[in-house]
């Protein structure tokens, strides 16, 4: 299968097979547990349910389009990550994948930490009672106001992204009479996506400070001199939707090399390294993601081995999965509006949402699966493209999928694995009302982010 190499760059897109669609599945009614949230099943009446509630009932009560999030699955994934890394490592959930106050509370209860990268995400985390010391603050251009709020709140770490920011954070912390714990984000020259990674000396992207040319070593030198900063470690994040651990191996080796240089030059062994997030999930049955315990074992072995080689005490590791925790826990439920067969090509299935609730297909050429969930069907498979209702021909939700040939307006279809980077990247394009997120558990459904209303739109539009 030919896979296009991602043009190593800032987009952090997914690498996808080119011009490819899967062969029709043998059973269109089957739900692959790899891509569907933990409690999703098809009941005897043919209707799919999540958390014990049928989607037909959910659609009636909450409308479509809507995201339904399996709370038990979310919590189970948090616990699996926490258990896999144990007490000698820290798991930070990357809030940008999807953040709400309920999510923050669950993270807190399940013992995870939280990454934020804006004032808004920080406000959400604090509003829901996440202890500040369990929050890490990221971003390549944090405003002075955001840094002040983070320092004031007492966040556990700020990840420094530029030379300007080293001075800026030090100054703000000192003025507040504090010593802020910080990490320095370095670019290690590894760009990893799905099954491939590219290792180079230089990286052409906006994040971090380059290891190449002694830049990162210089950043450490400066940070160690400033009273307002307590440098606790080095941070690296190499890509997204990664299945192959080889990129982490190169990245960890390069970071450990820097730790050894820092020890040699300053006599300081920095106590922590953060290897970032980017662990892949199954969007279709063809994807084969690793389990958290395998990832933990592999990352720990890599770091331990590299540290032994460099004669360093292994630092405390942290990781930042976003997609791998929340991605698989939700699906988007749509109602079919029109079914338009194009002779010899495919059938266009229009739903009541689109690129405003899932931009990933248009933005990254992302792949998704889809299933008819309000009933079963014995009809033949029909090559379909699920599209939205926006004024754009690129408004595609699922590029190539098989749906039953008797699909009709009024049927409910669901796209699994939409927990990450769908609601969080949702827009009001065409003045669409952003869909709600409904948490479902043990036969109960609860709105955690409500649907936008026309009043919401008009409130912002002050005339
Ligand atoms: C985006 C991001 C993550 C999370 O990425 P996922 O692909 O959702 O795991 C973690 N760390 C940093 C610094 C990021 O920018």
TrEMBL record:
Gene Ontology terms: biological process: lysine biosynthetic process via diaminopimelate
A Pfam family reported for this protein in Swiss-Prot or TrEMBL: Orn_DAP_Arg_deC
Domain Orn/DAP/Arg decarboxylase 2 N-terminal intervals: 72-327
Pathway membership, UniProt: Amino-acid biosynthesis; L-lysine biosynthesis via DAP pathway; L-lysine from DL-2,6-diaminopimelate: step 1/1
Any GO molecular function: diaminopimelate decarboxylase activity
Range of residues in the leader sequence: none
E.C. numbers: 4.1.1.20
Cofactor(s) listed in the protein's UniProt record: pyridoxal 5'-phosphate
Top-level lineage group: Bacteria
Assigned protein family: Belongs to the Orn/Lys/Arg decarboxylase class-II family. LysA subfamily.
Function: Specifically catalyzes the decarboxylation of meso-diaminopimelate (meso-DAP) to L-lysine.
Entry protein name: Diaminopimelate decarboxylase
Species for this entry: Streptomyces pristinaespiralis (strain ATCC 25486 / DSM 40338 / CBS 914.69 / JCM 4507 / KCC S-0507 / NBRC 13074 / NRRL 2958 / 5647)
